[in-house]
Specification:
Family: Belongs to the ERG4/ERG24 family.
Bound molecules: NADPH dihydro-nicotinamide-adenine-dinucleotide phosphate
Oligomer: single chain
Distance between the termini: 32 Å
Strand order of the largest sheet: 1-2
Pathway: Steroid biosynthesis; zymosterol biosynthesis; zymosterol from lanosterol: step 2/6
Catalytic activity: 4,4-dimethyl-5alpha-cholesta-8,24-dien-3beta-ol + NADP(+) = 4,4-dimethyl-5alpha-cholesta-8,14,24-trien-3beta-ol + NADPH + H(+)
Number of helices: 21
EC number: 1.3.1.70
Largest sheet: 2 strands, antiparallel
Subcellular location: Membrane
Shape: globular
Length: 458
């Protein structure tokens, strides 16, 4: 592996890659718990909300659960060679598309070694190609051509988890080579922790950057294809049509992915790319969690064929549209600004570090307006499933916890970057995610998170 597009300034390896002195996620025990917990939860959300196991949640018979977990054949049933080959075929397709499809090369942000990575922009055309091929298959063979995804769900999950494990392990081992630029948070020396959080900042094979590739292509596009496959499964059962609730989930989530891929360069200013290393946390999140957990609502609607009617459809559509508006304009304002443009003439403050921080527009209302928009959309994706089970709301609850925690991590990172300027900004913009209204959640709850995550290694 190499980071060939990186030009390094003359610094010793320990100056460039200082030891990580602060743990996140409750340190090594927390990292181990999440490393095991994410795959377990991905399976649990399948078995805990599935037609095959009898409901959402199914009636729990402890004796049956124990019998399954202690039987070798049950464990073997998680694996399926055909599903694994299909998954590998899908992954290979996205890699081939990255190489073959044309795309501009754009610079990432300046890294702390003074270099900039170059990224090829063709995630959107990869999606169009994948959708074109899918449409051709559906046109030729009908919706039953994709229903294998519903049948082989759990085996595809296994394949995706194994892929993330292999990549995270490979990247962890490769990060020990001479000259690798490590993530500031991933060099603690504890293998379990560094493997989870990501030791190397930008593992690459030549000009192929694994982190940004995995972030946008094999998982996100697969999520849409899975939703389409669920709509096909429903259509087969209903004689060709799908419910309005399925249309909403399919439309909202496809739009979200389209938007992310269309605005591909915007991810190069996000925390995942600029700050986090590529370890098991991102690998399993990108490859297994996103496609197989985020599509739970579509899978649920396969056997719970809810018709919402025009009023509920319009209301839920409105929630998603509002969320999208906030999410897109907030991310757009920051992305423009970070790329030297300020078309709305927004106010900003100058920091001693040289960077400027927006103090009006969305970033003047709260410190993470983009998270607020994202959360509203998450709610709109669950509402079409009705209220007969809380499990289809798992995504909103999990996402709120993730974003509150992420906001804390970003706050800490910005405090390190900007020092007293960050305090000044926080005085100007006191609200974290939701301006004013939900102060209990903003102040008390995240205070609790502070206590939970904010302890030092030294
Ligand atoms: P953000 O895009 O919110 O970026 C945070 C960075 O923005 C800070 O580190 C800082 O970096 C810069 N910044 C902070 N305040 C200001 C300001 N006032 N003016 C200008 N720049 C500022 O971080 P994320 O990577 O967390 O989120 C990106 C998007 O991805 C969000 O919309 C989020 O909702 C979404 N997301 C989605 C997930 C999913 O699973 N669907 C998971 C996680 C995120 P600097 O100053 O160094 O530029």
């Amino acid at each position: 592996m190499s980071s060939s597009s990186v030009s390094t300034s003359p610094q010793t390896s320990s100056e460039l890659n200082p030891r990580t002195t602060h743990y996140e996620f409750l340190g090594p025990p927390g990292a181990l718990a999440i490393t095991i917990g994410v795959p377990v939860m991905t399976y649990a959300l399948y078995f805990g909300c599935s037609e095959q196991t009898g409901g959402c949640p199914p009636p729990i018979d402890t004796a049956v659960v124990v019998e399954s977990l202690t039987s070798l054949s049950w464990w073997k049933s998680l694996w399926d060679t055909q599903a694994t080959l299909l998954y590998l075929g899908w992954y290979a397709f996205t890699v081939a598309a990255w190489y073959i499809l044309p795309g501009d090369w754009v610079d990432g942000t300046t890294m702390r070694n003074g270099g900039k990575k170059k990224y090829k922009i063709n995630a959107f055309s990869t999606m169009l190609l994948a959708l074109g091929i899918t449409s051709g298959v559906l046109y030729r063979y009908g919706p039953q051509a994709l229903t294998f995804v519903y049948d082989k769900w759990v085996n595809l999950v296994t394949a995706a988890i194994l892929m993330s494990l292999v990549q995270a392990l490979g990247c962890y081992l490769a990060s020990f080579r001479e000259g690798a630029l490590l993530a500031l948070g991933g060099n603690s020396g504890n293998p379990n922790y560094d493997f989870y959080i990501g030791r190397e900042l930008n593992p690459s094979i030549g000009s192929f950057d694994l982190k940004s590739f995995n972030e946008l292509r094999p998982g996100l596009i697969l999520w849409v294809l899975i939703d389409i496959a669920m709509a096909c499964e429903q259509a087969v059962r209903r004689g060709g049509s799908i419910t309005d609730s399925m249309w909403l989930v399919l439309g909202f989530q496809s739009w979200y992915v389209f938007d992310a891929l269309y605005n591909e360069p915007a991810i190069f200013t996000t925390m995942d790319i600029t700050t986090d290393g590529f370890g098991f946390m991102l690998a399993v999140g990108d490859l297994a969690w996103v496609p197989f957990v985020y599509s739970l609502q579509a899978r649920y609607l396969v056997w719970n064929q809810i018709e919402l009617g025009p009023i509920y459809t319009a209301l839920i559509f409105g929630v998603n549209a509002l969320g999208y508006y906030i999410f897109r304009t907030a991310n757009g304002e920051k992305n423009d600004f970070r790329n030297g443009r300020n078309p709305k003439n927004l106010q900003y403050m100058q920091t001693e570090r040289g960077t400027k921080l927006l103090t009006s527009g969305w970033w003047g209302r709260c410190r993470h307006p983009n998270y607020m928009g994202d959360l509203l959309m998450a709610l709109a994706w669950s509402l079409p499933t009705g209220f007969s089970t809380p499990i289809t709301y798992f995504y909103v609850i999990y996402f709120a916890v993730l974003l509150i925690h992420r906001e804390r991590r970003d706050d800490e990172a910005c405090e390190k970057k900007y020092g007293k300027d960050w305090h000044k900004y926080k005085q100007l913009v006191p609200w974290r995610i939701i301006p004013g209204a939900i102060w209990i959640m903003d102040v008390v709850w995240t205070g609790w998170f502070d206590a939970l995550i904010g302890f030092s290694l030294l």
